[in-house]
Model the fold of this input.
Amino acid sequence: MEDRKVVTIEDRIPTLKAQRKQRANRRLIVYLSIFFFLILLIIYFQSSLSHIRNVDVSGNNYVSQEEIQKLSGVDESISFWNINTKKIAESVEKSKEISDAKVSRKFPATVLIEVTENERVAYLKKGSKYFPILQTGSILEALPKGDTPVSAPILMQWNESTELSDMAGELRKVKMSVINRISEIHYTPDDTKAFNLTLYMTDGYEVRTSITTFSEKVNSYPLIVNKLRDKPKGILYLNEGSWLEPYEEVKVEEKPES
Done:
């Protein structure tokens, strides 16, 4: 039988001591790492390192980033971890021009604000000033001097009256694709019809309709015009029924008799 090598306890003691020392060193390293991590964490939260350094705004066309940031109340004095995203969104949505806001964090120190603006469905012209009208019916302050209306019709010959309020309500129901095809909306009442409107379209037609049925009739405009492609342009009446009066005939009728 082959003799086995016998290791005495005296021979094993140095190995056991070395293993114990290694385990103790590893535990010490873990404890020290946790300790220093907690120290760094405390320093981070107590210092300006944890404060917001950037506010990124997206989705805005008319409201400036500076104005949205001011509405949010977010600045570099606030800790990144102490912000209440829901309250910030509610603060931003207090603006007439903002219909929805979503707020989130982006590590290490950025706040993201994504907004959806209320569409501008028209501009009210008063003198040389243009007042934007939102899809909610709200009328904003006049555009800065030098700015011109874009992508929405201009309301001409209107005062801030019940008719204007009704008109704003009707414009809310009109598709934006149709809104963009209207150049001007004139309020043209007469002795028999107090709610008459005259619209000038970007494609060359003139439309006569009424405030009371405006959204219903005007939303059908693209379909009606598509059927009139082969006919000369003119005045399109959209009231109880719809019919076209070519400009050529209008000029003949308006020609004074000799």
